[in-house]
Automatic annotation (TrEMBL):
Gene3D superfamilies: 3.30.70.920. It comes from the Bacteria. The lineage of its organism: Bacteria, Bacillati, Actinomycetota, Actinomycetes, Propionibacteriales. Residues 7-76 form the Transcription regulator AsnC/Lrp ligand binding domain. This is Lrp/AsnC ligand binding domain-containing protein. InterPro entries: Dimeric_a/b-barrel, Tscrpt_reg_AsnC/Lrp_C. SUPFAM superfamilies: Dimeric alpha+beta barrel.
């Protein structure tokens, strides 16, 4: 499984429609509206690295209202449990 995080800038007047259309694309598991310099963040999960080429440039970038995208490919996933364990390293359990 390959996971990519796609930052999306969209036409402000079309953000809800862009989000719905991106969410409907095969391979897109979630779309979030966010604050800051971006409008949307899409999580893309596909079986093979080459599948990203189909999902992102061939589909996400072609949704009307998408102004630009920036894609980040995840190397490794850490569960919440793993992160909690990492932050607690070196702490006494009795404290």
């Amino acid at each position: 499984m390959v996971t990519a995080i796609v930052f999306i800038k969209a036409d402000v007047a079309r953000i809800p429609e862009v989000a719905e259309q991106v969410a409907a694309i095969d391979g897109v598991s979630e779309v979030y509206s966010v604050t800051g310099g971006l409008d949307l963040i899409a999580m893309v999960r596909v079986a093979h690295h080459d599948d990203l080429a189909s999902v992102i440039p061939d589909h996400v970038n072609r949704v009307p209202g998408v102004v630009s995208t920036e894609t980040h490919i995840a190397f490794r996933a850490y569960s919440t449990h793993d992160l909690e364990a990492a932050f607690s390293l070196g702490q006494d359990e009795g404290v």
